[in-house]
Amino acid sequence: MERSGEDRQISAYNPPSRKTIPPFEALRAFDAVARLGGVRNAARSLGRDHAVISRHLKTLEQWTGAKLIERTARGVVLTDDGRRYHAEIAAAMDAIASSTIDLMRRGYHNHLHISCAPGFALHWMSRRVGMFEKLNPDVEIELRPTDRSPDFGLYESDIEIRFVPSYRTVTKIETGMQYQEVASVPIVAVASPDYLASAPAIEAPHDLIEHRLLHEHDFDSWAHWLAAHGVFDELDLTGPRLWQGHLTLDAALHGRGVALMNYLVAESFIASGQLIEIGRDQPAFQPYAEGKYLIFSRADRWDTPLIRRYRRWLIDELRKDHSGLKKTA
Q: Is 201 in contact with 207 (CB distance < 8 Å)?
């Protein structure tokens, strides 16, 4: 006998019985073993004794009536059924984790996690973030200096502050992200007084070719900076590559050569006399090559009150502290 339309609708929305869902701890243990490749790795990841993980695996096999793992001399490996089962439940567990993080973030309005370019974090933000905290005493700030962009999809950060030289292509903005320029700053050549006292005079940008140039990842920054100052020779640049801005700065401070720094990072060292800005006020060294600080956030959180408040505070403070910098919209 054919069921009525109402009966079919009720049947369609009837969820699986909870009795068919194994204990969640057993599922977590199985997922960790499958992802990390072993019981001991799973135990370390979950903060459990490896014997507990083994019991959870046995429970899951008894519950399902299927053999999910094989024990070998090298440890455990998934059976065909185990691999199939894990592929199907892993996506569901990721969805549960993502939804839970999303719910936690939406309910946690007084915590702001900021990922930031290391130089900016150390030489500007760390000295001023207390001002924002005083204005917002209910807000907890977590500041993480990093060269790696966070995974906003996994809520690794609320905000990222990134420095991008004008001669480099801006990283493609991922779907669901929004950004704003907060400051445009000069990129300047700097060296220590000791280095300059013992090195040939520098009267024009072209003279720098004969000097010991300090590099970060590659030679491109110096090549572009020289080109921006009219030096288009076929260059065979040499010099140490130090792979991190802090190391390049430290090398310049210790007299190892000439470095390129963005002005916000170098400013305090120039003011104290530890570094000298080469070509300052000399027409041959104009115009400056520039770089931009950009602030990123998820588009769906861009105008949340706390993130909006922080963006406005950051731009205002940059303008007050550095009135000579190019203004942003």
A: yes
The tokens of 323 are what? 């009135």
Q: Are the CB atoms for 213 and 239 separated by under 8 Å? A: yes
Residue 207 one-letter amino acid: D
Percent of the chain with pLDDT strictly greater than 70: 87
| DSSP one-letter string for 33-72 | HHHHTSHHHHHHHHT--HHHHHHHHHHHHHHHTS--EEEE
- One-letter amino acid at 44 equals R
319 contacts: CB under 8 Å, gap ≥ 6 = 325, 327
What pairs with residue 262 in β-bridges? Answer: 187
The H-or-E segment that residue 4 falls in is none
Q: Is 138 helix (H, G, I), strand (E, B) or coil?
A: coil
- Alpha carbon separation from 1 to 4, 6, 8, 12, 176 (Å, rounded): 9, 14, 13, 18, 51
Average pLDDT of the chain, as a whole number: 85
Q: Residue 18, class by beta-carbon neighbours within 10 Å (0-12 exposed, 13-18 middle, 19+ buried)?
A: exposed
Judge contact between 150 and 296, C-beta under 8 A. no
Beta strands in the chain (DSSP E): 69-72, 75-78, 111-116, 140-145, 159-165, 177-191, 259-262, 276-277, 289-298
pLDDT in tens, 120-159: 999 899 989 999 999 999 899 999 999 888 888 777 899 9
> What is the Cα gyration radius of the chain?
28
Residue 113 — φ and ψ, nearest 5°? -100, 120
What tokens were used for 106?
């939406």
